[in-house]
Amino acid sequence: MAAAEPRKRVGFGSRPAVLMIDNYAGVFSEPGIPFLEAVKTNRSAMGDDANIAAAHIARLLEHSRAAGIPVIHVTGMHGNNMPGWHDMVHAGDRRGELSAEKPGAADKYAIVPLCAPVEGEVVLQKSAPSAFWGTPLPGLLNYLGVDTLIVGGESVSGCVRASVIEAASYRYRVIIAEECAYDRHQACRAINLFDMHQKYSDVLPLDEVVEWVDKYGAQKVAA
């Protein structure tokens, strides 16, 4: 029996954009606090893995901006702006019901400083796991002429996965910067990264992504 052919890479295209998903304050805790401790005071917390990933994201953003690659940020939306979602999906779970009027709620979906947008970068709010569902993202990517999405954020098993699958369905080349994608469960993160690498995207080390980004930027300058 002949051996199966090795998986072929999706590969980078020629018109990239960076898509950052849900790097918002509600999942972060103080540095050095492990996951099992962090969730005692914040059920949405991801522990120190979020802080580690944010530092990697900051590096990716720095290089992408220097290369002139558009950066798009997507964050969540308060429950009072998306009626029905928590009743249908999180019935009986009150954690998702934060309205903008409750103490501390106003900052829940604020993007943390290390990952924060700079002037001119688009920030979209979504009301479902996918960054595409019900948002202007498809039109924006079409306007920019994008063919490749470099993705990071959280959670790998939830909103990142939903966005990656939909991006691939739209026929975008999807590159996940491995160190920039995080989850509250290590097993879920590993399994979903493996699965997305097999089916929908390339999951690449951040060093490799940054190397490509830098070359892309240099080629733009030379042109």
UniProtKB/TrEMBL annotation:
Gene3D superfamilies, per the entry: Isochorismatase-like
Lineage: superkingdom: Bacteria
Alphabetized SUPFAM superfamilies for the sequence: Isochorismatase-like hydrolases
Gene Ontology molecular function terms on file: hydrolase activity
Segments forming domain Isochorismatase-like: 47-204
InterPro entries hit by this protein: Isochorismatase-like_dom (IPR000868), Isochorismatase-like_hydrls (IPR050272), Isochorismatase-like_sf (IPR036380)
Keywords: Hydrolase
Coiled-coil intervals: none
The name this protein goes by in its record: Isochorismatase family protein
Species this chain originates from: Actinacidiphila oryziradicis
